[in-house]
Inverse folding.
């Protein structure tokens, strides 16, 4: 199913392009949380990060820091958030993987986050072991 970002990739609708290579496109968010709010997307039409190929993930990882540096340099901001939502319950609206780069120029602009931290669970060692096994098996 094509998303609004699929339409941007196909050229069906325009964007304010920031960066493009064979596997990645970056463009300004149309409803920014702060000036310079940029979206970085793979050209591969994966819906969530866990569905993305290693090749696209590597391509994104290679350019994300460079695009962050450009956004900070041009907006004159030193602090920022990188956000990637997966699933509607986790605030994902567009069903195509995208990383938000959101400058945080001051308290009132940029990303506001709730962070309901709690004590780590008593079975943390067991949980970490299960996670290590799952990562190793490529689950
Ligand atoms: P998310 O909630 O993580 O799915 O974020 C989707 C983001 O896409 C929002 O910040 C929107 O403002 C942005 N967005 C939606 N349509 C467009 C568009 N045509 N061009 C640029 N950004 C868009």
């Amino acid at each position: 199913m094509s998303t609004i970002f699929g339409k941007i990739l196909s050229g069906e609708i325009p964007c304010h392009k920031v960066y493009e290579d064979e596997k990645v496109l970056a463009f300004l968010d149309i409803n920014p949380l702060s000036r310079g709010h940029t979206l970085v997307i793979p050209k591969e039409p994966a819906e969530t990060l866990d569905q993305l190929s290693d090749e696209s993930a590597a391509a994104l990882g290679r350019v994300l820091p460079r695009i962050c540096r450009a956004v900070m340099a041009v907006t004159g901001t030193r602090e920022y958030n990188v956000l990637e939502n997966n699933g509607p319950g986790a605030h994902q609206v567009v069903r195509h993987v995208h990383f938000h780069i959101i400058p945080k120029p001051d308290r009132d602009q940029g990303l506001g986050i709730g962070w309901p931290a709690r004590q780590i669970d008593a079975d943390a060692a067991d949980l970490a072991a299960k996670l290590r096994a799952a990562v190793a098996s490529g689950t």
Q: What stands out?
A: The chain has one domain: 4-113. The mean pLDDT is 97.
